[in-house]
Amino acid sequence: MKKALIVHKLKKVFEPAWFARVRGAQDFVAVKEISFSLTRGETLGFLGANGAGKTTTMQMLLGVLTPTSGSMQFNAQRIAFASGTMKLPSNLTVYECLRMYGLLYGMNWSHLTVRIEEMLDAFRIRHLAHKNSTRLSAGQTTTVILARTFLVEPDLILLDEPTATLDPENAQTIRQFIATYSKQHTVSMLFTSHNMAEVTELCDRIIVLKNGEIVADNTPERLAATVCFVTLTLLVVQNLSRLTEYLTVSQIRFELKEHDFIEIALDEQSVAKVLNQCAQLGVDYSSISVGKPTLEDYFIALMH
User: Which domains does the chain carry?
Assistant: First the structure.
């Protein structure tokens, strides 16, 4: 299958300033010769804790940072980028921002006009069309930037935490658009986010970075399946304190929720043992559920 992006042994080393080096400071290797590829039409998730090397890698792909070594090969006619931290040009209306961006990409005037109308409807921002960009909220700005990104019909899109500043309703609108768009067009996307449910919903494959290295490369479902524990959720109606004391002494991880719900993380084989212990302690519960591991469970386990 054709590759939209090929990254080979990409490395970035930050050298300390001379006065810091005099005091013994060492080079910091932010990205350690990582290699990966992005297939045409694929949405690839890029995950990692803060400081894992995601932003540094993204900045090298964008040309903001120069790699220390390694190579990047782009096989796309048109590349676009969007981030939840980007700003729009000041003193332009939303419509003017979209039009200017399309013209910078060399879009035909008549086609551009049609595309702007489509984006205003798709991202539900028609009511903002003639509003000055400086008067937009952070979430509205992010939505316009995303509309601007898809406006130019790119082959390759780099998305850096695109829904971070959005409220749940608008974030869902954006996710639905991205999911539908990726099915209808042969577009490749590199997608970073701390929202695990979002990554699971949108990404075909996930790369996980830790300390500048790739430690996992698989589908969201297969990564989640490597987690050996499940989440046991109980609605306790009597003797909750006895249960929490037992779990604490047994060093079993749990989290108290509202209305006397408790979530207990344990391996699947231990579920029966905990429920039996509840009976012995006189812990009564009116609701029980056992949840399968999620991508978030995998990520938390990996980071620890």
Answer: 41-58+77-224 (3.40.50.300), 228-296 (3.30.70.120)
